[in-house]
Amino acid sequence: MSGHTHNADDRRELQMARSMCWHCQSEMAGEYFCDRCVKVQPVSKDLDYFTCFGLPRRLAIDTQVLESKFYELSRAFHPDFYQNKSDAEQSISLGNSAMLNTAYRTLRDPIQRAEYLLDLEAGSVKDIRTSPPADLFEEILELQETLDEFRESDRSSEHASTLRAKLHTDRTNLEERQRDMEAKLQQLFSRWDALQDRGEATEQARAERTLILKDMRDILSNRTYVKNIVNDLVATIA
Amino acid sequence: MARIVGIDLGTTNSLVAYMDKGTPRVISARHERAMVPSVVALTDNGLIVGDPAKEHLTRNPERTVYSVKRFMGKSLADVQGELAYFPYTLTEKGGVIRIQLGEKSYSPPQISAMILKELKLRAEAFLGESITKAVITVPAYFNDSQRQATKDAGMIAGLEVLRIINEPTAASLAYGLQKKTQGTIAVYDLGGGTFDISILKLKNGIFEVLATNGDTHLGGDDFDQLIADLLLKDIRAQHGLDLSTHPDHMQAVRLQAERAKIRLSEELKTTVSLDLPDGQGRFSRELTRDQLEALCIPLVERSLGPCRLALKDSGLNPTDIDEVVLVGGSTRMPLVRQRVQALFGKEPHCELNPDEVVALGAAVQADILSGGTTDMLLLDVTPLSLGIETMGGVMSSLIRRNTTIPASAKEMFTTYVDGQTGVDIHILQGERELAKDNRSLARFRLKVPPLPAGVPRIEVTFLIDANGILNVMAKDMRTGETQSIEVKPSYGLSDQEVERMIEDSFKFAADDVSARKVIEARLDAGALITTTEKSLTDGGHLVEAEEIAKIRAALSALAAAKEGADPRAIRGRMADLEQAAKGLTVAMLDDSLKQGLQGKKISDVT
Ligand SMILES: Nc1ncnc2c1ncn2[C@@H]1O[C@H](COP(=O)(O)OP(=O)(O)OP(=O)(O)O)[C@@H](O)[C@H]1O
Ligand SMILES: [Mg+2]
Where residue A75 falls among pLDDT bands split at 50, 70, 90? Predict the structure, then answer.
């Protein structure tokens, strides 16, 4: 299972980056500088972050490559190197740098990377959960009650320390759940990458893709939900 | 490209540096040290800056401004708690602090501009060319208003501020250049008024800041204040005197406190003594290092919290830090070194002069901007989260703290009522939940075409540039039209006000040429006075009493002239003094020759 085949999506992205130089109007070959007048070009809004760093659209990426490409592009775009250039070039440099920094921040973190990929592939960032996930419903409802009770209790009372102890246990349990979810995500990530590497265009492969993306989205939003609850819990008992 | 200098505009001391063939160097005026005390005094001969102004701290406390950096980008309400400590008068106009000096009042950027002008003059005199561009450093933890105020100060001083950079990162540039370090470093910068911690990754010439934190209100000044409070209490107990009604003596106490603190970095105990007002004798007490440390430990501990947060934000443990670099005068305190060493578990580096390293780094950054240095690049972060106020007075964060700059975020706005023509936007900076607990940066009204509710779609881009300063742009997504937004800063000078201050300062530009002559003459006079006094001590016994009296008379005539603003008079009295001291100089020369000959004889004999 090697990643030597670029799938159709990757090629389309590269082609979308082709355009004309803003300065000398000559045809551009998809890079960041015009071949003819050497002027920096605004990074296309359609260029996805993976393509920007020359990385395949996978969830396991080589972070060393990511970093060195980030440094390389920083040297190409950073405003420090455009101090003596025209206003137009300075503003392109600023826009490109800001975009590059966002791209790097997004891909560097595995969760943000997955959320971003989900957005690219399925066109939606994440569901924002407002109610607990089904399998945690009872547990979280009870936790909310304990939290409320604790907030209203006299902190020095016997009752408060019982509640505190209970909240500690809840916290441990929830953190365990978070680790479960992360392990499941990891599995999904590997399945996704393997599927992409095979690059099959069968009906079955397409169905599997959809399924993985759906599962990924569910777990990601549950994870965010649980994370917020845990933060709230930690802040309350601190 | 015109030369760009690097400036460290410090709370207590400021410096200017330049790049000399790949090596950054600080600039010192003739016979002077490179550090210019950040003090401005109004004297009978006009405004003076630096060491001569520092002499007026006790003589003329109400008219001598120090630590003005503490007021940059602040409102009076922000500093209410410490007003009592400052002998000069602070007022407020339009959300900006004003400092009363005689008839006129000045904003903090105007006072800072005077310090910047002094540095500009020094650089011009030294480099023999006019200087109009600079990189100026600020504490990493400075917010947008404080950065903007610093930029304003540069403009008022006639400097184009090409870049505002953070002090600890500037230090890392100088450090990295000299040491060729690779790996993860922590820069701990404790100066006179502010504390910063920055964690950086250095790799192949890239200086990537991973996280920064700090306290813009923690520094040597605070240690001095604690010692001063102790002394004042003692004076009250021993002599029944309340010095708070004597601003000049309050200043003397503060200065003695600082000196004692500095001595205790070397010694284990010291004596503090000072004259009491109205000839009521002298106060004196012993202060040990242990006592000093007991006083200061809570403040030093306070600096460790931000260090831990910065480590957490960069996802590192103390053991992941390869090197710890100390910057700022207050890191000379043994207690500070101990605590930092204990936190990071390794001995901190202090080979670079902690007073100069920030200015040197600013010069390196200046050289990068002018295209001289091409292999180094600093990737800094924004220290505080940026957001807007949303319904219910909650802050919604758009750009998180420690995001690499330049950074941008887009937000879509629409209307809630049919025909609504504006949307009010309140920009905030800080880490707290509620809008009111964060720093208000600016408010502005977004213009919207009158349409049914929810139809307009205005995209607002918040961009933090490489200076860490916010720019706002808006675009109507239906028409594609962009809107320029005039952002009224909550705590700062408006563009018009800065304009006016620049004009004001140009009015005085003609005076500047003569001002430089005065400054130089004063510096030379100071040097001559020092050497002559030394000669009197060393060689006074070689000449007649009458001659000594003549020299003393010439000395005081020169000292008087030095206070004045007439460079010719100063030069004239210098010539008089040289003439009067000629006999002494010759006598000392003879004497040293004699000593030399005797020495030779002895060695010949043996
Ligand atoms: N040997 C010493 N021991 C203790 N403190 C010292 C020593 N030398 C200088 N300081 C203190 O260092 C402070 C000045 O440091 P520095 O010049 O780095 O500050 P700054 O750059 O003006 O301030 P900031 O960076 O906060 O704006 C003063 O408070 C001074 O008393
Ligand atoms: Mg400093």
Answer: very high
Domain range annotation of chain B: 4-219+296-379, 384-493, 498-597
Q: Which fold has domain B384-493?
A: Substrate Binding Domain Of DNAk; Chain A, domain 1 (2.60.34)
Residue A172: inside a domain, yes or no? yes
Give the E-state strand segments of B278-339 in sequence order.
282-288, 323-327
A104 and A12 in a common domain: yes
Which domain CATH number covers A16? 1.10.287.110
pLDDT tens digit sequence for A97-127: 999 999 999 999 998 998 898 888 877 655 6
Residue A119: CA count within 13 A, CB half-sphere: 14
Q: Which of A75, A81, A97 lies closest to B406 in CB terms?
A: A97
Asked: is B498-597 a CATH 1.10.418.70 domain? The reply is: no
Domain count, chain A: 2
Q: Give domain status of residue A230, yes or no.
A: yes
CATH number belonging to the domain at B4-219+296-379, selected among 3.40.50.2000, 3.30.420.40, 3.40.190.10, 3.40.50.261: 3.30.420.40
d(CA B54, CA B48): 9
Residue A41, CB-side half-sphere exposure with 13 Å CA sphere: 25
Q: What percent of chain B has pLDDT over 70?
A: 95
Strand partners, B383: none
Environment class of residue B40 by beta-carbon count within 10 Å: exposed (0-12), middle (13-18) or buried (19+)? buried
d(CA B294, ligand 2 centre) in Å: 25
User: Structural domain of residue A230, as residue ranges?
Assistant: 134-237
Rounded to an integer, what distance in angstroms lies between the CA atom of residue B168 and that of residue B189? 6
- The three-state secondary structure class of B401 is coil
Answer whether B220 contacts ligand 1 (Cβ < 6 A). yes
Closest to B3 measured CA to CA, from B114, B121, B135: B135
Across the interface, whether the CB atoms of A78 and B466 are under 8 A apart is answered: yes
Describe the crossing of helices B582-605 and B509-539 by its angle, rounded to 10 degrees: 50
Residues 6+ apart with CB under 8 A from B338: none
Query: B570-593 pLDDT, tens per residue?
Result: 888 998 998 899 888 888 888 877
Give the model confidence (pLDDT) of B441-477 as tens digits: 888 888 888 999 888 999 999 999 999 889 888 888 8
Angle (nearest 5°) at CA B185 between B184 and B188: 155
CB atoms within 10 A of CB B510: 9
Question: Which of A45, A72, A92, A101 to substitute to test the interface with B, most B CBs within 10 Å?
Answer: A101
